[in-house]
Automatic annotation (TrEMBL):
Residues 1-82 form the DM2 domain. The lineage of its organism: Eukaryota, Metazoa, Chordata, Craniata, Vertebrata. PROSITE patterns: SWIB_MDM2 (PS51925). CDD domains: MDM4 (cd17673). InterPro entries: SWIB_MDM2_dom_sf, SWIB_MDM2_domain. It comes from Pleuronectes platessa (European plaice). GO terms for biological process: negative regulation of apoptotic process; protein ubiquitination; regulation of gene expression. Residues 120-145 are annotated as: Disordered. Keywords: Metal-binding, Zinc, Zinc-finger. This is DM2 domain-containing protein.
Length: 145
């Protein structure tokens, strides 16, 4: 996918340098952005507070939950363009015709923050719980397939 300029700016803040990404990479950089800016609720870390942040302005929300990635994906898809060999201008919301042998019965990917050893009750995965002074560099949003 190719993020449109407003989303690409946010991904750049999280360290993205590419112009074209997989959806998993977009979600990973988005998670890094959320963690880096500490937009998550400190007690309920699956809640992202973004009312005073460019992310909130982009998504037109004050906060959202990352337990279920579908609503987050719905908010992001208008800022993503699907790139393909024949049609490079199709947006994520445009229908895609799949071959008859395709399997679309797989569940939607789930989004988690971090790359830890197991889920926390909030639905995030982290290497370890972080206190105020610990580094948050390896935390990012992933799409589990």
């Amino acid at each position: 996918v190719q993020p449109k300029a407003p989303l690409l700016q946010i991904l750049r803040v999280a360290g993205a340098q590419e112009e074209v990404f997989t959806l998993k990479e977009v979600m990973n950089y988005l998670g890094q952005y959320i963690m880096g800016r500490q937009l998550y609720d400190k007690q309920r870390q699956h809640i992202v507070h973004c009312q005073d942040d460019p992310l909130g302005e982009l998504l037109e929300v004050d906060s959202f939950c990352v337990k279920n990635p579908s609503p987050v994906y719905e908010m992001l898809k208008k800022y993503l363009v699907v790139l393909g060999s024949s049609d490079c201008s199709r947006t994520v919301s445009d229908p895609v015709i799949l071959p008859s042998h395709s399997t679309v019965d797989r569940p939607l990917p789930t989004m988690v923050l971090g790359k830890g050893k197991g889920p926390l009750p909030s639905g995030f995965h982290k290497d370890e719980l972080l206190s105020g002074g610990e580094s948050q560099e390896n935390l990012g949003m992933e799409v589990e397939e």
